[in-house]
Design goal:
alpha+beta; 2 helices; 5 strands; 19% strand
Length: 134
């Protein structure tokens, strides 16, 4: 089980903030992340914020409010507290070797960690069910 990485304390988890300065980054395997994006986009309102993917398309990164890393405990994922280092919301992705799946502007609010946690759980169950049907 992977755990969160915390460097510094930020705003309490569960708060919604503008994505960008001080956002934490939840990283998940791409299959689960893509399924979670679909789940979140089918939800009500602005459920998903900006999302990054790496060049190899192995992982997806969800921008979440600062402080989320302090309590993140979702198996198979990591949450890194960045304190805004390199996470500026410009057309060019903030992390070298990445690209925007959902760029800022299309999704300009950080994803609520509780909503993301639920979507990742649902995605994991859907993937397990699909894999067990083979």
């Amino acid at each position: 089980m992977e755990t969160s990485q915390s460097i510094d304390r930020g705003a309490p988890a569960g708060t919604t903030s503008r994505a960008g300065a001080g956002c934490d980054l939840v990283t998940v395997p791409s299959r689960q992340g893509l399924e979670a994006v679909d789940i979140l986009r089918r939800g009500v309102g602005d459920a998903v914020g900006p999302v990054l993917h790496d060049d190899g398309c192995d992982t997806l990164g969800f921008l979440v409010p600062p402080g989320t890393a302090d309590a993140w405990d979702v198996p198979g994922s990591t949450c890194t507290q960045t304190n805004g280092r390199g996470l500026s919301l410009h057309p060019r992705p903030p992390v070298e070797g990445s690209a925007w799946l959902l760029p800022p502007g299309d999704a300009d609010r950080a994803t609520d960690p509780a909503v993301l946690r639920a979507a990742l759980g649902e995605a994991a169950r859907l993937i397990a069910a699909a894999d067990n049907c083979r």
